[in-house]
């Protein structure tokens, strides 16, 4: 009996895996620094198919064909990227507006009031329809697996289900990468039922933790006339059953070039102007859900408790620009910059210029830079206030040597469920986070103990066992079972 061939994939996502931009040296191809892209792109290279995404690079139009298609990766194409073109007004209302001023703060329990505008909702719905109609003709003729990514495209599964050109042999999965809040929180969204109905067009919905699955099932039970089966973890709406599963996302374990201590110190001095004996690291988007201000408060408390660490320890905060057109993000960026300057000014005179308490870098870093920073940092702080998974924690562990380093991880990040051996903290508790920094700093000043070596080995082992390819295979297996 022949083994059935795996179906090709169609990924629908707001973010594209390759961006083309104009530079003084000509058109340049860039791969965005995105956890979603890093996790899914190796899967697409292995499986083949189509990636449908918003085209946003300055040279995206001229590098694609008249249908918005381009073969990628550039040097060894294995799948097709199809770009969806949005007008500036559509992008502002769909992306900056409904996705990031309404849904993002709502689902992250942020201390930022969601803004619900009916005009943003109408544009969001129209853009979701545009994505659902952008399927290449070949994906309509033969069976495919559709993987709809995240909160930007919550209505797409149902719209695909309504597409009469699709046969019953197609399968649809909705992959939700951010948290799902309790129903009492979610119901404040004026279009909560429409979002649930849109998602339930999928055969399978995956979240990163069981708690998010439970919150989703509860939302369906309370807000829809549907049948929720908690034993099967499924929801049946108008005769169509959708399975709901917790499938934690992993990283793509790209090879890491191990650098010598001399190379690392030279890299830090040349690229960032610092040369501390102990380096702490934060890698985040400039986002109010990432706990950057709370982290800075804990760092200030740490320097109060350990004044002898001034001149020895520096914290390098990478905060890549994010959603720069949204007023709340502009205000947050200004607060972060002011707070870093204030803390450094407070301890002025107690440290040399090459070892500032906080070094804030407000730009994008590519994977090569991040890999070197992960290897340089004896301490990595991943302390979001609420997060679906957060792959920085896994990337840091994978880049470290097997027996050194320290990961301080928020209890409210999905990654904490699978990495309990890290220093788990409450990011709202300044004293808790400061004490964890003290413990990690003291570990960094002496050779690792057997206990700490065993802890780091176990953490790295867990990361290696749950890669993005393992995640994808589990997702596809669940979809096949449905």
Distance between the termini: 22 Å
Strands in their spatial order, largest beta sheet: 5-6-4-1-7-8-9-12-11-10
- Number of H- or I-type helical stretches: 17
Q: Which structural category do the helix and sheet elements fall into?
A: alpha/beta
Write down the overall geometry.
globular
Low-pLDDT stretches are none
Strand content: 15-25%
The major pleated sheet works out as: 10 strands, mixed
Cα Rg: 23 Å
Task: Describe the structure in your own words.
- This protein is α/β, with parallel strands linked by helices and 482 residues long.
- It is built from 17 helices and 18 strands.
- The protein has helices spanning 35-47, 60-63, 88-107, 118-132, 137-141, 156-162, 183-186, 192-199, 210-223, 261-272, 292-305, 327-346, 367-376, 392-399, 430-444, 450-465, 468-481; strands at residues 9-12, 19-23, 26-30, 49-54, 69-72, 79-84, 145-149, 171-175, 204-207, 227-229, 234-237, 240-246, 278-285, 313-320, 358-361, 379-382, 406-410, 423-425.
- The strands form three sheets. It has a ten-stranded mixed beta sheet, sandwiched between helices. It has a six-stranded parallel beta sheet with strand order 15-14-13-16-17-18, with helices on both faces.
- α10 crosses α13.
- The protein is globular, with a radius of gyration of 23 Å.
- The two termini are 22 Å apart.
Question: How are the SSEs ordered, and which strands pair?
Answer:
Layout lengths: L8 E4 L6 E5 L2 E5 L4 H13 L1 E6 L5 H4 L5 E4 L6 E6 L3 H20 L10 H15 L4 H5 L3 E5 L6 H7 L8 E5 L7 H4 L5 H8 L4 E4 L2 H14 L3 E3 L4 E4 L2 E7 L14 H12 L5 E8 L6 H14 L7 E8 L6 H20 L11 E4 L5 H10 L2 E4 L9 H8 L6 E5 L12 E3 L4 H15 L5 H16 L2 H14 L1
Parallel strand pairs: 1-4, 1-7, 4-6, 7-8, 8-9, 9-12, 13-14, 13-16, 14-15, 16-17, 17-18
Antiparallel strand pairs: 2-3, 5-6, 10-11, 11-12
Helix pairs in contact: 3-4, 4-6, 10-13, 11-12, 11-15, 13-14, 14-16
């Amino acid at each position: 009996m022949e083994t059935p061939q795996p179906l090709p994939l169609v990924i629908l996502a707001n973010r594209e895996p390759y961006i083309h931009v104009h530079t003084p040296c000509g058109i340049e191809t860039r791969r965005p620094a995105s956890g979603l892209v890093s996790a899914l792109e190796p899967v697409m290279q292995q499986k083949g198919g189509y990636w449908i995404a918003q085209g946003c690079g300055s040279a995206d139009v001229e590098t694609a064909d008249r249908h918005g298609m381009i073969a990628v990766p550039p040097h060894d194409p294995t799948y097709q990227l199809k770009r969806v073109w949005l007008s500036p007004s559509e992008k502002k209302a769909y992306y900056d507006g409904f996705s990031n001023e309404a849904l993002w703060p709502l689902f992250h329990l942020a201390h930022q009031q969601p803004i619900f505008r009916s005009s943003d909702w109408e544009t969001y719905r129209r853009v979701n329809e545009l994505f659902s109609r952008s399927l290449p003709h070949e994906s309509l003729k033969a069976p495919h697996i559709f993987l709809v990514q995240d909160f930007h495209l919550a209505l797409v599964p149902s719209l695909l289900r309504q597409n009469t050109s699709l046969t019953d042999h197609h399968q649809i999965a909705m992959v939700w990468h951010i948290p799902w809040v309790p129903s009492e929180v979610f119901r404040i969204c004026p279009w909560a039922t429409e979002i649930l109905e849109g998602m339930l067009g999928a055969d399978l919905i995956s979240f990163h933790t069981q708690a998010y699955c439970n919150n989703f099932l509860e939302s369906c039970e309370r807000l829809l006339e549907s049948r929720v089966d908690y034993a099967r973890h499924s929801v049946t709406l108008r005769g169509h059953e959708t399975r709901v599963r917790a499938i934690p996302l992993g990283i793509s374990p790209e090879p890491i070039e191990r650098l010598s201590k001399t190379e690392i110190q030279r890299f830090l001095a040349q690229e960032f102007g610092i040369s501390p004996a102990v380096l702490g690291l934060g890698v985040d988007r400039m986002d109010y859900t990432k706990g950057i201000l709370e982290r800075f408060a804990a760092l200030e408390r740490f320097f109060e408790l350990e004044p002898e660490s001034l001149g020895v320890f520096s914290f390098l905060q990478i905060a890549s620009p994010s959603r720069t057109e949204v007023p709340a993000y502009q205000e947050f960026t200004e607060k972060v910059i002011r707070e870093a300057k204030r803390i450094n000014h407070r301890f002025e005179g107690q440290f040399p210029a090459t070892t500032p308490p906080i070094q804030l870098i407000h730009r994008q870093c590519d994977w090569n830079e991040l890999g070197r920073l992960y290897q340089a940092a004896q301490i990595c702080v991943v302390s979001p206030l609420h997060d679906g998974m957060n792959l920085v924690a896994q990337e840091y562990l994978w880049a470290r040597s097997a027996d050194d380093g320290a990961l301080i991880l928020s209890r409210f990040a999905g990654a904490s469920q699978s990495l309990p051996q890290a220093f788990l903290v409450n990011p709202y508790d300044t004293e808790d986070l400061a004490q964890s920094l003290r413990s990690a700093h003291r570990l960094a000043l002496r050779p690792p103990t057997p206990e700490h070596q065993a802890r780091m080995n176990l953490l790295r082992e867990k990361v290696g066992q749950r890669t993005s390819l393992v995640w994808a295979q589990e997702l596809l297996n669940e979809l096949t079972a449905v």
